[in-house]
Amino acid sequence: MLACGVAIAAILATPAIAQDRKKAPTPPSPELFEALEACRGIADNTQRLACFDSTSATLSAAVDSKQIVVIEEKEVQKTKRSLFGFRLPDLSIFGGKDNDTEADKTLNTTIKSLGRAAGGRWNIGIPEGAVWQTTEAMTINPAVGDAVEIKAGVMGGYFLKVRNKRAVRAKRVE
Q1: Cα–Cα distance measured from residue 166 to residue 30, given in angstroms and rounded to the nearest whole number
Q2: Residue 40, Cα to own-chain centre: how many angstroms?
Q3: What is the pLDDT of residues 132-152, one digit of tens each?
């Protein structure tokens, strides 16, 4: 019935999550959805309809009061792209460490803005709103519009590759 992902409102408060990574909110139990599913098992049409009406009203009230937020998968993917490079709490909506695919560990995008940093390093802005800084010198000079691949490495590091050339270490600074 619902082709959407469901998350608590705290998930959407990304600045709070980014600032306080130690206190990740615990997602609510799916009791409301279990109750909705239980309605399907009621044989009597009148009782089943009453169950659906009551449970869906409770669900709507939870959505209205922002206790539950309903979002589509495309919005989850958009949010994941904009948060790439930040450590997120292990919430199933963003995928956990155990179920991350290779695509979840790589961001392919373009350069939107550039700035030089000391020591041959670069500040590279991308359309998703992030700014990445190379932590070592690059052998090429990047340009606005160049293709960029940012890939998660081991132990929380990242590698940035411009125009499919040699990757350099990088960190997200904004």
Answers
A1: 46
A2: 32
A3: 999 998 888 899 999 999 998
